[in-house]
Description:
Layout: H1 2-21, E1 23-28, E2 31-36, E3 40-44, E4 47-51, E5 57-64, H2 69-83, E6 87-97, E7 100-109, E8 114-122, E9 128-136, H3 137-142, H4 144-152, E10 155-156
Antiparallel strand pairs: 1-2, 2-10, 3-4, 4-5, 5-9, 6-7, 7-8, 8-9
Amino acid sequence: MLKLRSLIFIILLVFFIPLTAEEIQHVVGDLSIQVPSAWRVEQEGDSLLIQSPDENVIMALIRLEADNLQSADQQASDLIGDVFNDFELEYSGEETLNGMNAILYGGYVISGTMMLGYYVVETPLETYYIFLGVASLDDSELYEDEVEAISESIRPVE
Length: 158
């Protein structure tokens, strides 16, 4: 019986602990987000900058000063326009992200070398955030699973 318990304990150590140690939870305002531990994270107030280990994928979670989802959407669009001069985005529609109202956009920087996408998110406390991701076309596929996991981890703080 002792050997069976030891075996189960070893299996848990080998398989479970590395999975839980790979991500770190960050709280930004009234949202939480899980980021792989190998990724670089910088936080300043209600903003979070996330970079892949090779710095070829950059994401940001930024609080917007808006009164409703439509004004947050406009503010996010203006912010994107200020940062990227020539881009083409496609409106993907209103969705929910872990129970929160969200608007999703995706597209490319016109030069054809960068992929760009973002969510505008309304939290249960009626605060608004933009979650933005930018990557080279090559790296967008390389980090696709990690980017998707990070995006899907955004949740209201309980």
